[in-house]
Amino acid sequence: MSDFIFSKKSFLKDQLALEIKKILTEEKLEITEFHGSWGSLAVSKNLYNGFLPIETEEHIFVVLGGPVLNFTANSFISSENGNKGTRQVYDRWQKGKIKWDEDLSGAFALLIVDKGRGELLCVTDLLSFIPVYLFKDKNDLFLSSHVDVLANVADRQMDIDVVSRADFILTGVVTFPFTMYTSIKQLLPATVYVHKEDEETFNSKTYWIPTETNFYTSVETAATDVRESIERYIEIVCDKTIEVAQFISGGEDSRLVAALLPENIKRDAFVFLDSMNREGILAQKAAKIYGANFKLASRTKNHYLQILPAASRLVGSGAEYMHAHSYGFHQSCQLKKYNAVFGGLFADAFLKGARIPKEPKTRFGARVKQQNPQLKKVQHKLFSTEVLEEVNKRRKTHIDLIEKMRPQSATEWFNFWPISMHESAPNIHANRRLFRSYEPFTSGEIVKISARIPQEWKLNRLLFHRVAKPLLKPSKWLMHNTGRLPYFPDMINRFIALPLRYMRKLRETREFRRRNHGPWAQWDVLAQSNEWRKMIEKYSEGLEKINENFKGKSAEEIYRHFNVSQKFRLLQVTEGISSAKSKP
């Protein structure tokens, strides 16, 4: 786990460390503290090899996450943990040669303290895959990579933003730059922040903007660049290592990653399921084809209810806890022992246009929908008009900001800039704190390519198919969990998948549906269980604090007005209220 909390005012030894330890109470965290006339800083030990903090006579230099360094060898990834990677970045920064958007790839955040001058510098990555939060007034300044740690240290935990609560429950995210606390905001992505001791302002300079530019003239050239970028990223991480893990599935993204993992190293392929099902069978076959050791990790039917308190603390307020799929398995599967655990997150988002508004499918496939500058308004009859108006105002302000950068694709990038606007982002927050997680589709090169290509190339797997086809040849006849054959283009798959989907529909008797054939939990079934009823009653006290219109209604009556996703977010919020109330 790697997190920090910085305070301009000084704290006693161990005060900051105690707050960071609350993120993951089930494990013994190693915390390093620094104190001086400039203030106090606490940093939890970075799991990624090579990125421990360093302290010189002049500076304290902290790197969160495990960025791939494009300007030097990354042999430290397979070595015992130390600060070689941090030292490389520090030396390059000292020489004035650092280019944040080119030299560091993936999720990272940096904090630099100039001890002599009392100057603070903070750097966020391209899309804030690791978000950083700020509280500042005339006297105090606090920065942290965990919003609840910051709120507790700055004593702002009672500054609850009721609009953000409604936003999160109804939409799954808190609209940037707001947080669940009125006085705490999230910093911009791809930005260098500088605070000088004698100045009240926090100066900032953004070093990369996803400007809408059609950089490529052919989809083939773009596909080659994507494939080579992913190959290079994986090759760097795997260099000199003897054992890695990956998350395998019945889909095509994990197959692409499996195909690129070096054959001369041991590869363990994990899947988390309720039980061995259709998804698991396909994942097992894919692992065998690509030479990986298949490992099924079964979860209880109530897994996502059982992990609620701990996973919520892990990802922080305003982030969906259910994306912390690996929580619990990080121990039972010993994921921390691997120098790298590869995932396939955000391939759909960055390369397949999952967040592009589309016209209804025709026989020619999906088409980009005419952009609407006004997103669909958030509505709910249990929330007041005033709260809903403010939620919609914030979302409109954000889409207007994105439109200035990307007038033709603002609705798509509304979900990416920053990545906290995407409800799957907590997956990164959880995994990076539990083991050495590497996501090839979040590399700097892939993010930039996604920003530089026409939206039409992302639809119907046009770009992705050209990227993946050579790598999918070994699994040419292995179906996707949706019934497609990923090796073939979208047009052919429409004919292949249609009869299979029809047959599956005929087979789906009530008894057949009881079995979960997908990778996730059956949320609707879980939300009708006895354990669910016990949970909503257990945390029902928090309901009245969320919304005045909840008063006088039973928990079951309130939950009936929400869809399944909203129900779980509402439960998460009420659990947080209950936990805060029980603290001494």
TrEMBL record:
EC number(s) on file: 6.3.5.4
EC class name: ligase
Domain Asparagine synthetase: 226-433
Enzymatic reactions: L-aspartate + L-glutamine + ATP + H2O = L-asparagine + L-glutamate + AMP + diphosphate + H(+)
Pathway: Amino-acid biosynthesis; L-asparagine biosynthesis; L-asparagine from L-aspartate (L-Gln route): step 1/1
Transmembrane intervals: none
Name recorded for this polypeptide: asparagine synthase (glutamine-hydrolyzing)
Organism of derivation: Autumnicola patrickiae
Organism lineage string: Bacteria, Pseudomonadati, Bacteroidota, Flavobacteriia, Flavobacteriales
